Amino acid sequence: MTEYNPIFRSPIAMPKSTSASSDLGVSDLTGIQVTLIQGEAGDILKKHLPNIPKRQPNPGDLAEVDGGLLARLTPTEFYLFGLSSDAKLPSAQALSDSLTKTKRFAHATDLTHGKAALKLTGPTAAEALSKICGLDFHDSVFPNMHVKQTSAAKVKTLIARCDEDGVPVYHLHVNRPFGQYFLEILWDAGQEFGIGS
């Protein structure tokens, strides 16, 4: 019997950029590790991700970890994702094994192949997002290192803000079947800001 080893392909086809230089850029990060951790797992996460801050993040907070971000969605739900293919994050299996050994009512699920992930970068990113989402993206309401689950373009979306060198950056995760649709809506909303890829 042969081993099943599927080739991963992103559901997103990026449009060709018509702008030579843009203050707003979008890139496809689909395929970079995404793990959902549910249950009483905070101390186990600290063993696998030693650079998590000593103070447990509150729901809505992000923490930088080993080339990725750990988002606390609720008191018992975490969302871990990489920022690049070089991220050194623990696998869902490794986390699940640790949780099983400690007999916790908790588990980790690999969502990598079930999510489409986009990165929106630039000083006008919040304005573009405001065109497809009802959230208030003002710095006082949605600051750097913050995450929310919401509806954007009528699709359930996780939006995580993690600025780079003072430039606003939003990571946008949707269910894989909506990836292309979501990109097209976002691309259309970004036209007035000269969106590029």
C-alpha termini separation: 42 Å
Q: Report the C-alpha radius of gyration, rounded.
A: 17 Å
Adjacency order of strands in the biggest sheet:
1-7-10-9-8
Q: Percent helix among the residues?
A: 10-25%
The CATH homologous superfamily of the largest domain: Probable tRNA modification gtpase trme, domain 1
Give the overall silhouette. Answer: globular
Instruction: State the helix count.
Output: 4
Low-confidence stretches: none
Query: How many separate domains make up the residues?
Result: 2
Descriptive notes:
This protein is of the alpha+beta class and 197 residues long. The chain has two domains: 86 residues, Probable tRNA modification gtpase trme, domain 1 (Gyrase A, domain 2, 2-Layer Sandwich), CATH 3.30.1360.120; 79 residues, Alpha-Beta Plaits. 17% of the residues lie in helices and 30% in strands. The protein contains four helices and ten strands. A five-stranded antiparallel sheet has the order 1-7-10-9-8. Strand 9 and strand 10 form a beta hairpin. The chain is globular. It starts with 24 loop residues before the first strand and ends in an 8-residue tail after the last helix. The relative contact order is 0.23.
